[in-house]
């Protein structure tokens, strides 16, 4: 096992990793920007190192500063969390060459599955269903000709994209050139790579992802699915496990395909395979693989009774997956709401500022993952998520009622948050009945004129 792990991230995921390290008897090192000096993860780590000013490009994305912090603190492993450098193959490669363990899959696998076009080809080679699509397109005009062959509507995707960036749905031929150029330009700004490819657009799909794990001892497993269909601008709002959509037969097919894929690429550590499922819940299509832990991993932990962060650390240290994880079986239902510092009734404008009162809900089956507290100032420089509210119950019906209760108890004063918006979603008959798809939130906002 490692002696000291550097956490190359911030916020709630950094604190989540630090707590897992402490329970494993491993020392933790927090890195932080000047804007994050008061964050809880900085206060609770065994050691902390300031690595620069507020901007992410000067701190959490600055590899040389992170490696310098690892060197001066004697860290023998780095956990990247999610976002920032978590899926950067070059970062993992430097870790490998520097004899610092990267807590994640190998740089080879990150490169293989991090590029969407290559990942798609890998899925095809391993018998995982994909939507009709194209290779990387050299320019907008060539892409337009290919789109006409595939048939509209199509989805334009940046090969290096993520988090909804570099993606544009195109329903009509006359809009294609402008949308392709917009997707490519956004991808250049966000990822330094404007290459795009095309996929057939599935109408009214569901977004379902499978949690997978592999180790160096020949164990490759899946821990069930999460339904992430409730999204605003391709950003997930509410997630649940298991999906209310899947039949046992479809769940088994998707799970088998997921395990087959990670076994064939020798995937070691935690990852997520994302799929589109058609509106009749008959067919599924590979979208992409996230070679890291996901924001919504707690719902899987609660339903499967495991600690995915600890498993990541154990696997990276060369240990096999825990016995209880290898034999885990689902128990009950879990729902997660992402609490953002945004004003949902003002076009979701960011709402940084000082939290003058923080009262988190509690009681049976309620979990809150956060790095903030009363008196904490939410900085304007980063993603607006300040907490994750997770509830778990024996049935979905009870979980829905429990989430409504917990959201109603959550008090945050001094800033605006998305809690009222999420309470509307949880209370809506479509959510209660589990009858929603990827486009549901957009339609709801249009109807409510939010």
Draw up the topology in text.
Blueprint: E1 4-7, H1 11-23, E2 27-32, H2 40-44, E3 47-50, H3 63-73, E4 77-79, H4 89-97, E5 101-102, H5 107-114, H6 116-125, H7 140-150, E6 154-162, E7 165-170, H8 176-191, E8 196-200, E9 206-214, E10 220-232, E11 235-241, H9 248-264, E12 269-277, E13 284-290, H10 297-304, H11 308-316, H12 323-326, E14 333-340, E15 342-343, E16 349-350, E17 353-354, E18 357-359, E19 366-370, E20 377-378, E21 385-393, H13 396-409, E22 411-413, H14 419-427, H15 429-432, H16 440-448
Parallel strand pairs: 1-2, 1-4, 2-3, 4-5
Antiparallel strand pairs: 6-7, 6-8, 9-10, 9-12, 10-11, 11-14, 12-13, 14-21, 15-16, 17-20, 18-22, 19-21
Helix pairs in contact: 4-5, 7-8, 13-14
Could you please describe the fold and organization of this structure?
By secondary structure, this protein is an alpha+beta fold. The protein folds into three domains: 4-103, Rossmann fold, CATH 3.40.50; 132-200, ATP-grasp fold, A domain (Dna Ligase, domain 1, 2-Layer Sandwich); 206-448, D-amino Acid Aminotransferase, Chain A, domain 1 (2-Layer Sandwich), CATH 3.30.470.20. It is built from 16 helices and 22 strands. The protein has helices at residues 11-23, 40-44, 63-73, 89-97, 107-114, 116-125, 140-150, 176-191, 248-264, 297-304, 308-316, 323-326, 396-409, 419-427, 429-432, 440-448; strands at 4-7, 27-32, 47-50, 77-79, 101-102, 154-162, 165-170, 196-200, 206-214, 220-232, 235-241, 269-277, 284-290, 333-340, 342-343, 349-350, 353-354, 357-359, 366-370, 377-378, 385-393, 411-413. The strands form six sheets. An eight-stranded antiparallel sheet has the order 13-12-9-10-11-14-21-19, with helices on both faces. Strands 3-2-1-4-5 form a five-stranded parallel sheet, with helices on both faces. Strands 7-6-8 form a three-stranded antiparallel sheet. Helix 2 links the parallel strand 2 and strand 3 (47-50). Helix 13 (396-409) runs antiparallel to helix 14 (419-427). The protein is globular.
């Amino acid at each position: 096992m490692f002696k000291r792990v550097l956490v190359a991230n911030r916020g709630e995921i950094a604190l989540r990793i630090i707590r897992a390290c402490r329970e494993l008897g491993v020392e933790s090192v927090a890195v932080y920007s000047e804007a994050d000096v008061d964050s809880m993860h900085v206060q609770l780590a065994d050691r902390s190192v300031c690595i620069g000013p507020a901007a992410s490009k000067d701190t959490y994305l600055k590899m040389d500063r992170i490696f310098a912090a690892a060197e001066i603190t004697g860290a023998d492993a780095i956990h990247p969390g999610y976002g920032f450098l978590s899926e950067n193959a070059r970062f993992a490669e430097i870790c490998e060459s520097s004899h610092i363990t990267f807590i994640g899959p190998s740089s080879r696998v990150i490169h293989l599955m991090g590029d969407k076009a290559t990942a798609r080809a890998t899925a095809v080679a391993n018998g995982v269903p994909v939507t009709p699509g194209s290779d990387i397109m050299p320019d907008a005009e060539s892409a337009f000709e290919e789109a006409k062959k595939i048939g509209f509507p199509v989805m334009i995707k940046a090969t290096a994209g993520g988090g909804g960036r570099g993606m544009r749905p195109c329903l009509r031929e006359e809009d294609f050139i402008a949308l392709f150029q917009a997707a490519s330009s956004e991808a250049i700004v966000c990822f330094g790579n404007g290459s795009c490819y095309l996929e057939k657009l599935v109408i009214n799909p569901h977004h379902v992802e499978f949690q997978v794990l592999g180790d160096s001892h020949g164990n490759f497993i899946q821990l069930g699915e999460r339904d992430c269909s409730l999204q605003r601008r391709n950003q997930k709002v509410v997630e649940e496990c298991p999906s209310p959509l899947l039949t046992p037969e479809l769940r088994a097919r998707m799970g088998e395909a997921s395990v087959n894929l990670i076994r064939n690429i020798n995937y070691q550590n935690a990852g997520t395979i994302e799929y589109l499922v058609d509106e009749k819940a008959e067919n599924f299509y590979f979208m992409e693989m996230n070679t890291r832990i996901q924001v919504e991993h707690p719902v899987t932990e609660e339903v499967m009774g495991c600690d995915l962060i600890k498993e990541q650390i154990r696997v990276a240290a060369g240990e096999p997956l825990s016995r209880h994880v290898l034999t885990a079986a689902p128990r009950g239902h879990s729902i997660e709401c992402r609490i953002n510092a945004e004003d949902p009734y003002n076009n979701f404008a960011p709402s940084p500022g000082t939290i003058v009162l923080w009262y988190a809900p509690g009681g049976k089956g309620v979990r809150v993952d956060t790095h903030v507290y009363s008196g904490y100032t939410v900085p304007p420089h980063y993603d607006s998520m300040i907490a994750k509210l997770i509830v778990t119950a024996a049935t979905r019906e009870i979980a829905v009622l429990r989430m409504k209760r917990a959201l109603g108890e959550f008090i945050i004063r001094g800033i605006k948050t998305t809690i009222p918006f999420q309470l509307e979603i949880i209370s809506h008959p479509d959510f209660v009945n589990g009858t929603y798809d990827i486009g549901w939130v957009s339609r709801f906002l249009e109807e409510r004129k939010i």
